[in-house]
């Protein structure tokens, strides 16, 4: 069976058409759907969107030197941990390389910010930022990684605003990869049967579902039984 | 340029395949009429893997879902948004209007919020209550049977609450609220605001053999490949095609309705986008479901000696009384929602609870009301995730800024701690707020474009003020803090621009008097009885509800009227 047909069968037949509740079947269906979907190509683009992507991919904006410095910054922002890779492990620099072409309003602040950073490192250590030692790099970063609401170091303002942008793009670039999502712990985007907040979580927050609502909620056991109502609109199936 | 005439003659041509057009095609085709459906966008089937975005991961998009190409992000299933290539519109100087168009089979129903609220008895007769605007020529009792059938035909979850102006129906069971929704319930209760299970047209239980049941991916805006949410293609157009009575014309942009010496419609003229040639289709009736503004545009562009001011426009009311829902919102940070245990809470594609309007306008300084929607939770990251996250530290006395392990910890600690609360309310329809044809500009098909002239009044501004004050109270009651500044008078209290809520209605309003309305209570043009309008154009007034459920109930009613007239050979 072709991949596309399999998907059709699973989603229309497997998940929706046949009876899937509850645990055993559900897990099977979940695994199959995930396998097929992750093997799919593309992300549902229209012809004009495909052209847009091709155009952006052909363009060059950031040069190698700039991308090398971005890689250093990315790994300062999100270094590896014992359980998760670093921003460069998650290929965040490649994402930034793409996004500045896709959203050109990032271009000047990034390019100019890198120039500012190299200017600052030259002033302090007579070296480009990338050639500084880790300690030297961090001493600059510590001056631009925190807001300065009282304007105590006005000469750092351009660096603070540049670093804020780099931090935002690194965070987004990282947590939208598989590595980042695994680290974050997001466990959705898969077929499942939502049955409310886990009891232990409700208990922790001191919350409960209103008693009078309970009989009205979805009962997954009968989800596949065709809906029928009495004349007053009470669900009777 | 030669106009190519089709030899076929249809019983009816339906322009547009969204909520209104889809329903009309479905009803008429199943009654045995020969139907053409003419859609300006391409064919679209939610289950086609080539166009599908459901269940995609953010990394599958090189921009991680950013809104470069689609206003609501890469994975949102709308081809076209407030801007469409080659299809501009203009505005009267100093005014604002944003006009959303989805150019695809099924139109906006492929991505909409599925919030499916009946209008209530008051909503049809609001002039009787506050003296503003105009009453509908029909009452809730007249439309109730169609709502009842719609509930069963399409499926909508919710609960019967016995509320006067938020009528009961035939509901599927609602899903349990998520954690942030339980917090909202707590905060709203303290403020004296009612909260009830949401009413969304998503199948939490089977309703027929053709459509699947929700598997809780939370992505209805991507259009469900299992047809478990309401989209016009999967629920109306494809089933209508099974009758063998429907010819589908996609990528065909209708220019105008053609008329004869008696001033009656004879069909439509359209531009085929594939060869950019003009074609004519003939029919005994024309049903416009192109969307409130597009249908008004088609009518105004259908000028003839019988209809010098445009078809149906002898009253000069086409395009007038254009009104969108009001909208304003706040977001809040809730410390109790920090450091959450993570679990899958995607749920359905939308909110699980909401607050219907509860206020008493006699005690308020604005007319009409709004309902409250909310968002939040442990959602799938996309472009924008992590932006400013470290900044939330300021609300808990933590260190703002930083990098490294601290930042990584912040990403996790704050995941799911932000909620958004928004109001969607009723504006008062005004004669002056309108769209007209801009004689100085055409789109890429050579069709004159729309010019908008729309201003909010203090009614809407004061309503927005009430919204943000209320949301601040709810957020505070949840133990949270409003993020950013609450918008003040200088910002119209955060009132969004007209068109931004995408509930535009009223451009061909129904009424008994042909001098002050465009259609009669059957949505038939006063000026040409074989033309019906089945989108939100005939709405005499909005309500504090979303308009789609009413579009469909009314379209069902109008289409059955058309079928009856057709069978009697009245048209």
Describe this structure in words.
The complex is a heterodimer of chains A (237) and B (571). Chain A folds into two domains: 3-18 and 25-184, no CATH class; 191-237, no CATH class. Chain A contains ten helices and no strands. Chain A has helices at 3-17, 23-39, 47-58, 64-77, 92-102, 107-125, 134-144, 157-175, 178-184, 199-205. In chain A, helix 4 packs across helix 8 (157-175), helix 5 (92-102) crosses helix 8 (157-175) and helix 6 (107-125) crosses helix 8. The two termini of chain A are 36 Å apart. The model of chain A is unreliable at 1-39 (pLDDT under 50). In chain B, 63% of the residues are buried. The longest helix of chain B has 20 residues, at 458-477. Chain B has helices at 19-30, 121-124, 126-130, 140-154, 179-190, 232-241, 292-300, 405-413, 458-477, 548-567, and strands at residues 4-15, 35-38, 90-91, 196-197, 246-249, 252-259, 265-272, 277-288, 326-333, 353-354, 370-376, 418-425, 434-442, 448-453, 481-482, 531-533.
Topology:
The complex is a heterodimer of chains A (237) and B (571).
Chain A: H1 3-17, H2 23-39, H3 47-58, H4 64-77, H5 92-102, H6 107-125, H7 134-144, H8 157-175, H9 178-184, H10 199-205
Helix pairs in contact in A: 1-2, 4-5, 4-8, 5-8, 6-8
Chain B: E1 4-15, H1 19-30, E2 35-38, E3 90-91, H2 121-124, H3 126-130, H4 140-154, H5 179-190, E4 196-197, H6 232-241, E5 246-249, E6 252-259, E7 265-272, E8 277-288, H7 292-300, E9 326-333, E10 353-354, E11 370-376, H8 405-413, E12 418-425, E13 434-442, E14 448-453, H9 458-477, E15 481-482, E16 531-533, H10 548-567
Parallel strand pairs in B: 1-2, 1-8, 2-5, 3-14, 8-16
Antiparallel strand pairs in B: 4-10, 6-7, 7-8, 9-12, 9-15, 11-12, 13-14
Helix pairs in contact in B: 1-6, 1-10, 4-10, 5-9
């Amino acid at each position: 069976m072709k991949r596309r047909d399999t998907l059709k069968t699973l989603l229309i037949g497997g998940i929706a058409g046949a009876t899937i509740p509850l645990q055993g079947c559900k897990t099977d269906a979940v695994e199959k759907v995930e396998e097929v979907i992750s093997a799919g190509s593309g992300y549902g683009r229209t012809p004009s969107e495909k052209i847009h992507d091709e155009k952006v991919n052909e363009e060059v904006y950031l040069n190698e030197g700039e991308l090398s410095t971005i890689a250093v910054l990315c790994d300062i922002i999100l270094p590896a941990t014992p359980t998760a890779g670093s921003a460069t492990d998650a290929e965040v620099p490649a994402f930034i390389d793409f996004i500045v072409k896709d959203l050109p309003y990032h271009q000047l602040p990034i390019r100019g910010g890198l120039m500012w950073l190299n200017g600052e490192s030259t002033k302090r250590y007579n070296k480009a930022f990338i050639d500084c030692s880790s300690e030297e790099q961090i001493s600059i970063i510590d001056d631009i990684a925190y807001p300065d609401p009282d304007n105590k170091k006005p000469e750092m303002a351009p660096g603070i605003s540049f670093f804020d942008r780099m931090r935002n793009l690194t965070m987004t670039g990282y947590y939208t990869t598989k590595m980042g999502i695994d680290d974050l712990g997001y466990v959705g985007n898969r077929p499942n049967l939502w049955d409310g907040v886990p009891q232990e979580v409700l208990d922790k927050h001191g919350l409960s579902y209103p008693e009078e609502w309970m009989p009205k909620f979805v009962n997954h056991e009968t989800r596949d039984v065709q809906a029928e109502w009495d004349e007053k609109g009470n669900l009777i199936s | 340029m030669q106009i190519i005439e089709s030899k076929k003659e249809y019983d009816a041509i339906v322009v547009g395949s969204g909520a209104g057009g889809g329903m009309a095609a479905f009803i008429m085709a199943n009654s045995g009429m020969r139907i053409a459906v003419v859609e300006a966008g391409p064919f679209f089937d939610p289950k086609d893997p080539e166009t599908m975005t459901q269940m995609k991961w953010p990394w599958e998009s090189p921009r991680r879902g950013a809104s470069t190409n689609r206003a609501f992000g890469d994975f949102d299933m709308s081809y076209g948004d407030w801007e469409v290539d080659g299809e501009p519109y203009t505005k009267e100087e100093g005014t604002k209007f944003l006009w959303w168009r989805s150019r695809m089979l099924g139109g906006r129903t492929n991505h909409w919020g599925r919030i499916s609220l009946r209008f209530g008895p008051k909503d049809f007769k609001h002039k009787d209550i506050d003296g503003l605007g105009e009453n509908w020529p029909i009452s809730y009792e007249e439309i109730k049977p169609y709502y009842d059938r719609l509930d069963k035909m399409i499926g909508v979850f919710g609960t019967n609450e016995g509320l006067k102006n938020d009528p009961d129906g035939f509901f599927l069971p609602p899903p349990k609220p998520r954690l942030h929704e339980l917090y909202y319930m707590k905060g709203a209760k303290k403020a004296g605001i009612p909260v009830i299970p949401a009413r969304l047209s998503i199948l939490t239980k089977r309703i027929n053999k053709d459509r699947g049941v929700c598997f809780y991916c939370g992505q209805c805006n991507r259009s469900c490949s299992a047809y478990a949410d309401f989209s016009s293609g999967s629920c109306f157009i494809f089933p209508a095609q099974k009758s063998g009575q429907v010819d589908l014309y996609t990528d065909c942009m209708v220019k105008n309705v053609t008329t004869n010496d008696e001033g009656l419609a004879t069909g439509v003229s359209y531009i085929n986008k594939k060869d950019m040639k003009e074609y004519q289709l003939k029919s005994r009736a024309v049903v416009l479901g192109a969307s409130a503004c597009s249908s008004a545009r088609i009518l105004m562009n259908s000028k003839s000696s019988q209809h010098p001011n445009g078809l149906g426009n002898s009253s000069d009311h086409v395009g007038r009384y254009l009104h969108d829902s009001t909208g304003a919102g706040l977001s809040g940070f809730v410390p109790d929602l920090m450091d959450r245990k993570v679990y899958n809470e995607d749920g359905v594609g939308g909110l699980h609870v909401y607050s219907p309007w509860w206020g008493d306008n006699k005690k308020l300084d604005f007319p009409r009301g709004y309902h409250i929607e909310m968002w939040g939770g442990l959602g799938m990251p996309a472009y924008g995730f992590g932006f400013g996250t470290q900044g939330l530290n300021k609300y808990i006395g933590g260190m703002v800024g930083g990098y490294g392990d601290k930042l990584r910890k912040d990403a996790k600690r704050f995941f799911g701690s932000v909620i958004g609360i928004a109001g969607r309310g009723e504006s008062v329809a005004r004669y002056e707020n309108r769209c007209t044809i801009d004689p100085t500009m055409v789109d890429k098909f050579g069709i004159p474009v729309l010019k908008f002239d729309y201003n909010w009044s203090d009614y809407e501004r004061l309503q927005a003020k009430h919204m943000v004050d209320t949301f601040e109270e709810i957020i505070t009651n949840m133990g949270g803090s409003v993020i950013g500044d609450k918008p003040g008078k200088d910002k119209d209290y955060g009132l969004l621009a007209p068109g931004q809520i995408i509930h535009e209605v009223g451009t061909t309003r129904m009424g008994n008097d042909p001098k002050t309305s465009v259609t009669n209570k059957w949505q038939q043009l006063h000026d040409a009885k074989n033309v019906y309008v089945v989108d939100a154009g005939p709405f005499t007034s909005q309500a504090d509800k979303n308009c789609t459920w009413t579009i469909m109930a009314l379209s069902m009613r109008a289409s059955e009227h058309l079928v009856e007239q057709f069978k009697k050979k009245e048209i």
